[in-house]
Design goal:
Blueprint (H helix, E strand, L loop, with lengths): L1 H22 L4 H25 L1 H7 L3 H29 L4 H28 L7 H33 L4 H30 L3
Length: about 200
């Protein structure tokens, strides 16, 4: 789980760096699709890590609603990440990048909206033992990151739609990827802290 969250942070940071470089006009034809692929990999890494530890997390979950949200959030991240990777690869080889990249941003925004409950539910897991104060701080950070994910996801959907209808598609796509990557860095960092306190036995 920690490995998946750390991979999420690393890929989110890479997305931010690639988006900033592309916004300066550097190799946009390559960096925008690569940033899209990297962000998709981040979602797959985190969703896959949660899926791999789903039984243990379900045992720590406070109720059936939490377990259902863990499952739904994991599925949204895996499907959204895989779809984004495919769209990024197609755009990288030159197949309608002006259409596929905004669509990828919309897909990523939807995945964050659906997966924001996953971040909140990881924050609600009980943290046993000696680091209770640290666990409480990490829980609050996870809940805040979940709210941020919801806002960024909604914003990314709007930016993707505006780019799709032709309003400065490259810039809006890059701004969407920049916001999405930043959100993953924050949520991945908070999830790592929460998991460190929750899974310590």
């Amino acid at each position: 789980m920690l490995g998946g969250s750390l991979a999420e942070v690393a890929c989110g940071a890479a997305t931010v760096v690639l988006s900033i470089l592309a916004l300066t006009g550097t190799l946009q034809g390559y960096l925008v699709p690569i940033a899209t692929i990297v962000f998709g990999v981040a979602l797959i890494a985190h969703g896959g890590a949660v899926a791999a530890r789903f039984r243990a997390l379900s045992a720590a979950a406070v109720g059936w609603d939490t377990r259902a949200e863990l499952s739904g959030g994991t599925g949204a991240e895996l499907v959204g990440g895989a779809a984004g990777v495919v769209l990024g690869i197609l755009a990288l080889v030159g197949i309608a990048p002006a259409v596929l990249l905004p669509v990828a941003v919309i897909v990523f925004g939807g995945a964050l909206l659906l997966g924001s409950g996953l971040t909140a539910d990881i924050g609600s897991l009980e943290a046993p033992g000696a680091h209770e104060r640290l666990g409480d701080v990490a829980r609050q950070a996870s809940l805040a990151a979940s709210g941020l994910q919801t806002l960024v996801g909604a914003g990314a959907v709007v930016l993707g739609i505006l780019a799709l209808v032709g309003i400065d598609p490259t810039v809006l796509t890059l701004v969407g990827l920049l916001a999405l990557g930043s959100s993953l860095v924050l949520s991945g960092t908070s999830a790592s802290g929460r998991l460190a306190s929750t899974m310590r036995r």
